[in-house]
Every structure is written in structure tokens, then in C-alpha cells.
Amino acid sequence: GGGPGYGMRPGYGTAPYASSPLNLTAEQTGKLQTLREAYLKEATPLQNQLFSKRAELRLLWGKQSPDQAEIAAKQKEIFEIQQQLQEKATKYQFDCRNVLTPEQQTQMAASGPGYGRGHGPGRGRW
Predict the structure, then answer these.
(1) What is the average per-residue pLDDT within 61-86?
(2) Distance (Å, whole) CA 65 – CA 68
């Protein structure tokens, strides 16, 4: 299943590419793990905020007489958090890609758009 929103969050589990056919060096694996940990440290609080804001939105819709302005404002907050998550995920993906050699990047690109997907609650490419 998908994680909380557009975070493109890698799943919790092994390091990115751990079981990949890219033949990563120990140094590459270490760099990717460090990038992943840094990404999760930044993304997790935003994902928690997103979860909370969505719960608040559900409560607003559940009122006897929902206030359109309140709902629109809450949706705007949600979209802003989603945008922040998307930006962080894009940066993370580029940072991970830059750890790979040109040959590994070519091999990854040839494997299709879902390559390197994490296993877990998020929808990550890396």
C-alpha cells in the first residue's frame, strides 16, 4: 500500500539498492544509506504533519455545517506539505543517482521507472 501522500518515501528496510544487480561498492552503499537516513530525518516530520492535517480536514468535513473557507485553508496547508515532500524526494533521488557511476545509472534507467522501489509504507523509487 501507499504511504501518507506524495512523499515518494522509500520504504523502511534495507539500504537502497541492497539487493540490486548494480554491483554497488561498499562506499556507494554507505553513501546511499547516509542519504536515505538524512532524507527520512527530513521527511518523517512532514509526513506526520500531513497525516495530522488530513485528520483535521476529515473533522472539518464531518461538521454539521462544514465551513468552505476552513476546508479550503486546510487543503492549502496539505498541498504545501505535499509540495515540500515532493521537493525533498526529488532532491533525494538526484542525490542517490549522483552516487552511481554512469554505467550504473544507464543500467538503472534501462530497468524501468519502478527500479529501486523501497519495501514499506511509502512510494519510493530509491
Answers:
(1) 98
(2) 9
Do residues 114 and 125 lie in contact, with contact meaning Cβ atoms separated by under 8 Å? Answer: yes
Q: What is the pLDDT of residue 110?
A: 83
Q: Does pLDDT of 47 surpass 80?
A: yes
Q: How far apart are CA 47 and CA 52, in angstroms?
A: 9
Q: What is the pTM of this model?
A: 0.73
Distance from C-alpha of 93 to C-alpha of 88, rounded to nearest angstrom = 9
Q: Report the alpha-carbon distance of residue 123 to residue 4 in Å, rounded.
A: 9
Rounded Cα distance between 57 and 73, Å, is: 10
Give residue 21's pLDDT.
78
Calculate Rg over the CA atoms of the chain.
Answer: 18
Side-chain half-sphere CA neighbours of 33 within 13 A? 11
Secondary structure of the chain: what % helix, strand, coil (to 5)?
60, 0, 40
Give the Cβ contact number of residue 61 at 10 Å.
11
